[in-house]
Specification:
Elements (H helix, E strand, L loop, with lengths): L1 E14 L3 E8 L3 E7 L16 E7 L8 E8 L8 H17 L7 H16 L4 H17 L18 E4 L6 E3 H4 L7 E2 L3 H4 L5 H18 L6 H18 L1
Antiparallel strand pairs: 1-2, 1-4, 2-3, 4-5, 6-7, 6-8
Helix pairs in contact: 1-2, 1-7, 2-3, 3-6, 6-7
Length: about 240
């Protein structure tokens, strides 16, 4: 097995005294794990930072063997980890992707979307500039893994106008008329997810609540407390920014 490709670093786990097991997302070959010799060294620690873009080269004698990986830094986002809110967003987006994607299956739309989200976090002067993109990425991730929401028509009336809620059970949108009397049992559907455009903070919070419900129900069960903690940290810091 020999693969050479640009990749987004998603997770880094120490292995032995000096090495690291890295999971990285490539555009054409999906998520690829690899062992980096000397990954804990002073020279490689800044390179092996989740969200960095690298040129990776994976080599192994068999497909079943964990490949050896060498990396060359293309673009570093390490400075952002000195800022609490961008750091929480980078950690969540990369940890989520590493936790739920199967190895070696291509997801070119997810690769492009994740690259866009990370670039937005890096470039935007304020969180509202990237939070919408993050919510959209979470929706895309659900869809790509077979748990997409149906936000095109009302589950109760079949119509496609005035959609304002989502059923937490079926994942299908519900109009204001169809939701009458049941609003408290439904998740709010923020307008930017159906109409596009910018969003106010209340809409962003509703979007995160919506995607968080289905991520937890369909993708994150059994993934351990660490991944849930990463999202809770991000939401907490966003709420502080709003306040």
């Amino acid at each position: 097995m020999h693969l050479r490709a640009e990749a987004i670093l998603l997770s880094v786990r120490t292995h032995g005294e000096h090495g690291a097991v890295v999971r990285a997302l490539t555009e054409s070959d999906g998520l690829q794990p690899g062992y980096v010799r000397g990954g804990r060294s002073r020279a490689l620690r800044p390179v092996l930072q989740p969200s960095n873009l690298v040129l990776g080269e994976w080599r192994s004698r068999t497909d079943e063997q964990l490949a050896g990986l060498t990396v060359e830094l293309i673009h570093s986002r390490a400075p952002l980890f000195g800022e609490p809110l961008p750091a929480a967003a980078l950690q969540w987006a990369t940890a989520l992707t590493a936790s739920v994607l199967p190895d070696a299956q291509p997801y070119p739309r997810l690769y492009s979307a994740l690259d866009g989200v990370l670039a937005a976090i890096e470039a935007a002067p304020a969180a509202r500039g990237w939070a919408v993109a993050l919510v959209r990425y979470e929706l895309l991730l659900l869809a790509e893994l077979g748990f997409g929401l149906d936000l095109d028509h009302c589950a109760a009336t079949g119509r496609n106008d005035d959609l304002a809620f989502v059923s937490p059970k079926s994942g299908v949108a519900v109009s204001r008329v169809g939701a009458e009397g049941y609003e408290a049992k439904l998740l709010r559907l923020p307008p930017f997810l159906t109409a596009g455009g910018a969003a106010e903070w209340d809409d962003i919070v509703d979007g995160l609540r919506l995607t968080g419900h289905f991520l937890q129900r369909d993708l994150l069960i059994g993934k351990g407390a660490e991944i849930g903690t990463a999202r809770a940290r991000l939401v907490d810091r966003l709420m502080r920014a709003v306040a």
